[in-house]
Write a structure and sequence with these properties.
heterodimer, A: 133 residues, mainly beta, Immunoglobulin-like, 4-stranded antiparallel β-sheet, elongated, B: 149 residues
Chain lengths: 133, 149
C-alpha cells in the first residue's frame, strides 16, 4: 500500500491564448519532468484522451502537448452529479536543451502520456578540464 | 466510549450528502450556474449520470491499473478503494516538475437510486473508470397508457 492518501483537486484551466473553434474547456495536465544527462522525460496525466488524439509538437525549443477528450457521457444519459469537469488538455513548455527531433518517442497508456526526448550530442554536459598554466 | 444514536434506517452522513446535493441543485436552477468544483471532495472525484436502465459513475484515474482497484456495493453506497502508483525513477535523474501524485484512496459514493448489486460492470479506458449499475425493474420509468372511457 502506498503511504500517502490522495487528495482531490480541481483541475486547473489553461490560460486562453487564442479563440478556440472546438467548444468546451481546456485544462492543464499535471506533469512530471525529469532528465538524465542524455534524455529529457515528460509524463502527463490526460485522462479520457485516446492515443490517436494526442498531439506533440516541438518547434524551436517550444514544446506543445495537447489532447482531445471523447464526450464524457454516453448518448441518452443525463448528468445527475458533477464533481469534475471534462475538457481538452493543452500545455506548453520551453525546453532548455536541444532535443533530437527525430528520436522523440511518445506512448499513451491508461490516460498517461510518456514522452522521451533524447538530447542532441552537443547539449550533453561535458566536464571541462581546467589546465594549470 | 462515544455512543452514536441513530434512528433506524437513517444515516446522518447520507442525509447530509443528499442535503448538500439539493442545495447545489437549487443554486444551479436559481442562477443558471453550473456548479464550479469549489467544494473539493474526496479523491477520486466522480460524475454520476443515468439513462433509462442504468446509473453510470465515472472517475478520472489516470495511470491506475484495474488490479489496483477495489469496488464494493453496499446497500445504496458504492465504495471505491485503490492506489495510484508512480514508479520511482533511478537516482541519477533530476526533476524539473513533480505534480503527479501517488497514494491510496478510499471513497464512498451515495448512489441516487437503488441498484441491482449483481448487475454491475466496471471498465477502465484511457484512465477513466466507468461503473455501470443496473436499476431494478421497479424504479425504471414506465409509460402509463391513458384509457379513453
Amino acid at each position: 500500500m502506498a503511504e500517502k492518501e490522495l487528495q482531490a483537486k480541481a483541475k486547473e484551466e489553461a490560460p486562453a491564448k487564442a479563440e478556440r473553434v472546438r467548444p468546451g474547456r481546456v485544462f492543464l495536465p499535471a506533469v512530471d519532468i525529469f532528465e538524465t544527462p542524455e534524455i529529457l522525460y515528460l509524463v502527463a496525466d490526460m485522462p479520457g484522451v485516446a492515443a490517436a488524439k494526442v498531439t506533440v509538437d516541438l518547434k524551436d525549443n517550444h514544446l506543445t502537448i495537447s489532447g482531445e477528450v471523447a464526450p464524457a457521457v454516453g448518448a441518452g444519459e443525463t448528468m445527475l452529479e458533477r464533481e469534475y469537469f471534462t475538457g481538452d488538455y493543452l500545455r506548453e513548455f520551453h525546453v532548455g536543451s536541444m532535443i533530437d527531433q527525430g528520436k522523440i518517442e511518445a506512448t499513451m497508456t491508461d490516460g498517461v502520456l510518456h514522452l522521451v526526448l533524447p538530447k542532441v550530442e552537443k547539449a550533453k554536459p561535458r566536464k571541462i578540464e581546467v589546465k594549470t598554466a | 466510549m462515544p455512543i452514536i444514536f441513530r434512528e433506524p434506517g437513517l444515516d446522518p452522513l447520507r442525509e447530509l450528502e443528499q442535503l448538500q446535493r439539493r442545495m447545489d441543485r437549487l443554486f444551479q436552477n436559481a442562477f443558471g450556474l453550473e456548479r464550479s468544483p469549489w467544494r473539493v471532495g474526496v479523491y477520486p472525484l466522480v460524475n454520476i449520470s443515468e439513462d433509462r436502465d442504468h446509473i453510470f459513475v465515472r472517475a478520472e484515474l489516470p495511470g491506475v491499473k484495474a488490479a489496483d482497484l477495489e469496488i464494493t456495493i453496499q446497500d445504496n453506497s458504492l465504495i471505491l478503494r485503490g492506489q495510484r502508483q508512480i514508479p520511482t525513477e533511478e537516482k541519477q535523474v533530476n526533476y524539473h516538475r513533480r505534480e503527479r501524485e501517488s497514494g491510496f484512496f478510499r471513497r464512498v459514493v451515495a448512489l441516487p437510486a437503488r441498484v441491482q448489486a449483481d448487475k454491475v460492470e466496471a471498465t477502465c479506458k484511457d484512465g477513466i473508470l466507468t461503473i455501470k449499475l443496473a436499476k431494478p425493474e421497479e424504479v425504471k420509468p414506465r409509460k402509463i397508457q391513458v384509457k379513453v372511457a
